[in-house]
Amino acid sequence: MQEMFSMYFESRGQISVIELYVEFEQSEVDRNIEEEEYDSDSEEEFESNYEAVAPEGEEDQGDGVVAPNVGDVANALANKDPFEEPSFMRVLDLEAMHAPEFPEYMSAEIPMVADGEFAIGMEFSSREAVMMAVKDYTIRRGVDYRVYESKPLTFYAKCTQYGSGCDWLIRVSMISRKYCWVIRRYNGSHTCTRATISQDHSKLDSNTIAEAIKPLVEADPSIKVKSVIAEVQSKFNYTISYRKAWLAKQKAMEKIFGGWEASYEALPIWFQAMCNKEPSAIVHFETMSAYQGDEEVTDIRVLHRVFWSYYPFIRAFRHCKPVVQVDGTHLYGKYKGCLLVAVSQDGNNNIVPIAFAIVEGETSDAWHFFLSNLRQHVVTRDGVGLISDRHESINAAIARSNGAWSPPRAFHMFCIRHIESNFLRKFMAPYLQKLVVNIGYSRTVREYEQRYQRLRERGEAYTNWLNQIPREQYALAYDGGYRWGHMTTNLVECINSVLKGARNLPITALVKATFYRLNELFTRKRAEAEMNEVFEVREMPAGTEYAVDLRQQRCDCGEFQVDRISCRHVFACCVNQLLDWRVYVHEVYKMDQVRRVYRARFRPLGNPTMWPVYSGPRFVPNPNMRRVTKGRPRMTRFLNEMDTRMLRAPRRCRQCGAEGHSRSRCRRSAGVGPSNPGQ
């Protein structure tokens, strides 16, 4: 077909129309080709992993749960080079999207040959480059070949129809004196045509695809499998199966970020190197014994939990608002788990992550582990506000903290968005959601009482449910000022979205992502940072009056005492009296404090060969956390009202007042009235 179209383009002046007739037929030659094991995608390897979904989206469930042997896991080899910075956490290089598919042989000096054909004397850098070049040539021309000789110094292949209408063959040998591979024999282009047209190609295996999509996976590890299929289709003009695309993505991730088991072994080595450069950093492991059969393996430990916080975080929190938001998010990959995060905010409204932990799940013990280390090593000052959702495990962990997270040392408060969701789940009254949220946002007692009374008029059951939650844990008017105006855990959600791609990575790559990404954040923010009177204010034209006490730093609007920053009424007083408004702004908002947040620097880890020798135990993943079922992972989180659009009240017509339609569809507006039998 390619030759036919080439001839047509050369002689379009004489040939005005071409016709093509295609007959689909399964020949015996093609049956033999399909039976050959060209593709290295092992079914056993595919099923041993943790997820697989057919193109139609149907899940392929396994016959049972297979318990992995810890001894086999313990024998996993460490990644050869696990210490490079994850490139997807750097600035995204758009040029990487258009990188050549096979850089191994593209980097070699290949002579310019017409029509992209090989030529005798063409040189390649390695045997792998030769094989990739032949594969690429075969895939792009829609032909196939068989390997007749593959030795350490020779590669010899022929067309599958050699001797039956096509004489294509290639022989490449290693030339020792040149330190390269050279084509010694080549018979020219293919003269065969395939009897069948297929959407896939036998040489387009998962290894070839993995090399082609490495730039995409490196830029975004959370890339969808459907996007991989689309990328392969655009590059090779073949539509591969979901299974092959999924395997290719896993192999690409392993080549870029290392294997899953090897990543667990590399984790303590990386943390030791980091702590050696920055001794003030905090790392705390909890491990379990590893068993091979009934015998305990002495030099291997199963990683259970790990808490870490970098010194710049610890130092930065001293100059941030005394408020901490905590939340957890699930990890995706070969092993289950949760990432727990604690964040704060500086005076310039910048988010400052202060601690992380990887645990088995959002259990009471896991939250106790995280909050205990957070209190002991990072949040050491008193009078701190802690904002979280109403998860029972967090409440239980705070109850076990022996007063470390209880008044007067700390004040635990709830996210108003989660309270709103709990309220809607309890009463299914979406028209009252906004009123419940407004009750929490009430800055003054008067506002609170007015809105609370409005809710009570709708039904005492609503206020009785709300009374079960102490009002100092959800209302600004009664929080004692420990919220600093923060009503939700949105700051943590922002960090979770930033680390969304990292949650698909092996554990060491995930930890390194927090290091390099936040190192970049601190560097950028540090560069940016280098910049008894009582009045009555009347707002016009409404004429509303507000009392402002600059000595007590209070205003009737509530913003002054809640946010610790001058409101519009305070600015009006300062302009009128020629006062310096900066005197009435809290220290945390001043640039001097903002500079101190990012004053500490991350120390580079240096060359891995110069790190001290690690002598501790090897880490392996917990086999009980292994995903062993096939198919798309099932969602374990229950969807609630927070995952859907805000429900609306029933639609009411402004023309007739009835429910169920709008004015534009009202029958009255259309001129339809009661029937008149006299007409």
UniProtKB/TrEMBL annotation:
Residues 33-48 have a biased composition (Acidic residues). Keywords: Metal-binding, Zinc, Zinc-finger. Residues 546-578 form the SWIM-type domain. Residues 651-668 form the CCHC-type domain. InterPro entries: MULE_transposase_dom (IPR018289), Transposase_MuDR (IPR004332), Znf_CCHC (IPR001878), Znf_PMZ (IPR006564), Znf_SWIM (IPR007527). PROSITE patterns: ZF_CCHC, ZF_SWIM. GO terms for molecular function: nucleic acid binding; zinc ion binding. SMART domains: ZnF_PMZ. Residues 31-62 are annotated as: Disordered. Pfam families: DBD_Tnp_Mut (PF03108), MULE (PF10551), SWIM (PF04434). This is SWIM-type domain-containing protein. It comes from the Eukaryota.
